User: Which sequence fits this backbone?
């Protein structure tokens, strides 16, 4: 990849530089019907991942009461989940590259999804003690890290390179939709049953998703997609239908020597720290202001109402204007949103602030994922695994105990000022990233 950032006009750029995503001249994406089908399935998979991640914060007040925990102790429940995520992301990322790209990624992905389905069922049936519940967070974390890592790489390999930002952005709308759906589902579950029943949502969502992917993610279907891409003079996501690595160290070395990958890890670490630190205790903050637990769970997912807008718009726009251009605006939007959370003092202010945050909350992730896959397409699984594993897991391991400590000793205002400062630091690694898309100006 060239070290020169192509933030110049199309006329000045001349021939397409080697390794650069050709970018899109149009904001209207084009894809084969099977590309759209894969997009639906992977979006539903991300929705399941989002619901899984949102269940714990939503039912955390009930868990704290059941097991007599303080905020710092409750933070460690999330930390062990993130520990499992680190293992799952790296292991399944490497495994998916080793088994094969393209249609073969479905094989690895289904295993990761199945672990989450089993973990959700076991949490309902066997989490009678704190130790049992604590330990069951490990396989749930492994599934989260493995399924998201392979999921992002999978969807990117069923769409033309010109529309990669759109595809990754749309598939990631499963997160905001899941965030709102989680709040609504948990509110219903808590009114009708207990917090353990909430974890049954995972197998109910996961089983039909796996069945759908088995039918769509075949070699013949991928051949049809590639034939359509060639016919319409677009760019294949990879030259071959599938490739596999010879050794596990080959993709690791490639990822760890790529500056875009390393800077993406740092950038995502900062974003995910802020997300984990804020979302884990949102329901606790609302309950502290007199909001009922079920209503607080619903409000905590309000960002999902607008989150899909930010992801589709910024993911698609990054295909045209560049990944870095989009990220600058998203960092500023996050900082303003985190500072606005200081003023959440009830249901109304909670709805307003979190709906505003939804315009920015999830958008940095698909834009950065697209940047990373642009930068290292052959080893997308391993690169995604390293980024999600290190950034997501380490941020979660550190963020929730630190946030619990700050809230216990200094309050929510200090917590959000601290998080806004962390987010603003993201401009530093962003400046070190090389643009991966050929920019097309209007």
Assistant:
């Amino acid at each position: 990849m060239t070290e020169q950032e192509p933030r110049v006009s199309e006329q000045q750029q001349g021939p397409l530089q080697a390794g650069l995503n050709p970018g899109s001249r149009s904001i209207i994406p084009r894809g084969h019907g099977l590309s759209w089908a894969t997009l639906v399935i992977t979006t539903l998979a991300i929705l399941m991942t989002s619901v899984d991640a949102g269940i714990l914060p939503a039912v955390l007040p009930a868990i704290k009461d059941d097991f007599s925990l303080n905020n710092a102790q409750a933070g460690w429940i999330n930390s062990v989940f993130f520990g499992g995520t680190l293992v799952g992301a790296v292991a399944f990322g490497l495994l998916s590259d080793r088994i094969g790209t393209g249609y073969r990624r479905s094989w690895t992905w289904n295993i990761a999804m199945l672990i989450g389905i089993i973990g959700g069922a076991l949490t309902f049936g066997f989490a009678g003690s704190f130790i049992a519940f604590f330990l069951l967070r490990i396989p749930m974390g492994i599934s989260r890290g493995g399924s998201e890592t392979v999921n992002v790489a999978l969807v990117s390999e069923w769409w033309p390179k010109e529309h990669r930002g759109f595809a990754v952005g749309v598939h990631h709308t499963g997160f905001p939709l899941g965030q709102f759906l989680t709040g609504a589902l948990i509110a219903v579950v808590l009114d009708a049953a207990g917090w353990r029943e909430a974890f049954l949502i995972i197998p109910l969502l996961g089983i039909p998703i796996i069945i759908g992917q088995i039918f769509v993610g075949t070699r013949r279907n991928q051949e049809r997609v590639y034939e359509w891409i060639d016919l319409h003079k677009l760019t294949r996501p990879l030259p071959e239908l599938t490739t596999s690595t010879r050794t596990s160290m080959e993709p690791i070395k490639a990822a760890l020597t790529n500056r875009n990958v390393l800077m993406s890890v740092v950038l995502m670490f900062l974003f995910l720290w802020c997300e984990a630190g804020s979302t884990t205790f949102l329901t606790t903050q609302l309950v502290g202001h007199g909001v009922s637990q079920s209503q607080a769970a619903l409000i905590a997912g309000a960002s999902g109402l607008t989150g899909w807008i930010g992801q589709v718009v910024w993911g698609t726009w990054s295909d045209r204007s560049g990944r870095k251009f989009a990220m600058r605006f998203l960092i500023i939007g996050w900082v303003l949103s985190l500072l606005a959370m200081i003023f959440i003092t009830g249901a109304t202010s909670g709805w307003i602030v979190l709906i505003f945050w939804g315009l920015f909350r999830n958008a940095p992730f698909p834009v950065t994922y697209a940047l990373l896959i642009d930068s290292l397409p052959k080893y997308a699984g391993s690169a995604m695994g390293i980024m999600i594993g290190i950034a997501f897991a380490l941020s979660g391991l550190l963020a929730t105990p630190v946030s619990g400590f700050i809230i216990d000793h200094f309050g929510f205002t200090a917590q959000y000022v601290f998080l806004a400062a962390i987010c603003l630091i993201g401009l530093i690694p962003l400046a070190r990233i090389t643009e991966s898309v050929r920019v097309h100006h209007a």
